[in-house]
Amino acid sequence: MIEKLISYSLRNRFIVLLAAAGLLGWGWYSIQTSKIDAIPDLSENQVIVFTEWIGRSPQIMEDQVTYPLVTNLQALPRVKYVRGSSMFGMSFVYVIFEDAVDVYWARQRVLERMNYASRLLPEGVVPTIGPDGTGVGHILWYTLNAPGMDLGEQRALQDWYIKFGLQNVQGVAEVASFGGFEKQYQVTINPNKLTYFGLSVQQVIQAIRANNNEAGGRKFESNDIGYVIKTTGYIKNVEEIENISLKTENSIPIRIRDVATVQMTGQLRLGIFDAEGDGEVVGGIVVMRYGENADEVIKKVKKKMEEVAKGFPEGMKFTIAYDRSGLIEESVSSIKRTLFEEMLAVSLVVILFLFHWRSALSILIQIPIAIATAFILLNAFHISSNIMSLTGIALAIGVIADNGIIMSENAYKHLSHRYSQKKNSNIN
Q: Which of 5, 116, 117, 189 is 20 to 30 Å apart from 343, CA to CA?
């Protein structure tokens, strides 16, 4: 088979050169479109299901949330195993699929199964599927530098303006907020007053919920004009909560302010985010979508940040806390420099050892074609150009040169042998 291939190549040199040129061109295009990242994505093919049930202990979360979800999600096809983790008020379920499974097919099957499993959970508990990112998806961290603005205002700006702006960038799966205070209305009930008026905590909760909504009315016409009646009942300030009526005794309403204290405060925090020892900061983490080009996504996010910053209050700006693009550029440039130096060193060695320009040229041509073909295969198997893959290519250059030298030497050896045989036969 090999002899026939060599014989065919020798008879059809133009076709071989054309195929080599085609591979070189295809490889150059693959290099230009290759996904670039600093580190390879070795994370498992997983889908995360997150469930929040505020105020419940880890044991309750395990028994009533994590266990029902784990037992039901185990029945999914092509699942390797399911892991569960419970903590105070939160439950995490990790569904690990086989490596060959498409991530979006896996997410779809998890969503289908969650529709059934949700019936087994307590009322009001809704499991949520995590973003379609990976373990190395955190590509950029930023903080807000806002002198004169308190942490609550910064967090509100992050959650309701910055986050929505950056999530529109193509390739971004999620922008996770951190730091600061999430504003909320907090009702602190006095149990003694609650007992005195004969009320329960559930009545207070139901009263607040009932008075924090809108209701639609009917349509009526007057003078050939139609009017739609509705009631607006969303809570807007602390005073409105304090004036909500719980019940009436002897024509006197019992309001929430009679049994509780209402105030605007921050949500319970389990930690703080400090930047370089200068105090608390507010910021966000940009999570890249599965299978995207990290270098391109970071460039788009930075461009979008410039647009978002135009709407900031005076004196406020972004501060980059972590940016993987620097590591990506340094890693890729280092490997590229190594590839160039290796090709140059190998070229010199080949020329010096063979001392025959045609033989040296035939060997040196193999190196760019082999590298181009490697990038074609990297793109075909969806492997990014990272430290590991580019280092493997760099190490393979020596093997390619060695093979070329051995083949050239072997060819010259056989040609010399045949030439000596022919010469002896002519003498005889």
A: 5
The helix or strand, by DSSP H or E, that contains position 241, with its residue range, turns out to be helix 238-242
* CB atoms near residue 378 (< 10 Å): 22
Write the DSSP string, 18-57: HHHHHHHHHHHHHHHH--B-SS------EEEEEEE-TT--
Q: pLDDT at position 354, please?
A: 66
Assess contact for 326 and 299: CB atoms under 8 A.
no
Are residues 284 and 158 in contact, defined by beta-carbon separation less than 8 angstroms? yes
CB 192 within 8 A of CB 178: no
Whole-angstrom distance, CA of residue 410 vs CA of residue 408: 5
Residue pair 301/180 in contact (Cβ under 8 Å)? The answer is no
Q: What is the pLDDT of residues 243-274, one digit of tens each?
A: 999 988 888 899 999 999 999 888 777 778 88
In three-state form (DSSP H/G/I as H, E/B as E, the rest C), the secondary structure along 386-424 is CHHHHHHHHHHHHHHHHHHHHHHHHHHHHHHHHHHHHHH
C-alpha 317 chain-centroid distance: 24
Q: Which amino acid is at 42?
A: L
Helices (H), 263-386: 294-309, 324-354, 357-380
Domains with residue ranges and CATH for the chain: 2-38+328-427 (1.20.1640.10), 44-133 (3.30.70.1430), 183-266 (3.30.2090.10)
Q: Kindly tell me if the per-residue pLDDT of 66 is higher than 90.
A: yes
